[in-house]
Amino acid sequence: MCSKNEMRSEGNKNCGATKCKIGEPVMKATSVAAFTGDTSYRTDPGATYNPPFMGKSAATTISESKRAGPCPPDMEPAHQIEINRA
Question: CATH classification of 2-65, choosing from 3.30.1300, 2.30.30, 3.40.50, 1.10.3470?
Fold first, then answer.
């Protein structure tokens, strides 16, 4: 059950904050998606869990994407090409 779910825009950024109860643990999550025109974006989501959930007290993920050029002729809408995947 979530007691907080907020979204807002600030210039080129979309920001969000959520607070949810997952059984006993309380999860507080935030995210920021920053856009550079229509050519790139970066997302910074993160969450904390109190008490820890499945052995973790926090989690973060960073994702960056940018336009690499025209799509190949055989590429369909929504397909992605992953480069330098770590």
Answer: 3.30.1300
Distance, CA of 86 to CA of 58 (rounded, Å): 20
Arithmetic mean of pLDDT, 54-81: 87
| pLDDT beyond 90 at 67 | no
At 80 the pLDDT is: 76
Question: Please, are residues 25 and 51 in contact by the beta-carbon 8 Å criterion?
Answer: yes
Residue 41 CB burial class (10 angstroms; 0-12, 13-18, ≥19): middle
| pTM for the structure as a whole | 0.72
Non-local (6+) Cβ contacts of 46 within 8 A are: 29, 30, 31, 58, 59, 60, 61
Euclidean distance between CA atoms 22 and 54, whole angstroms: 11
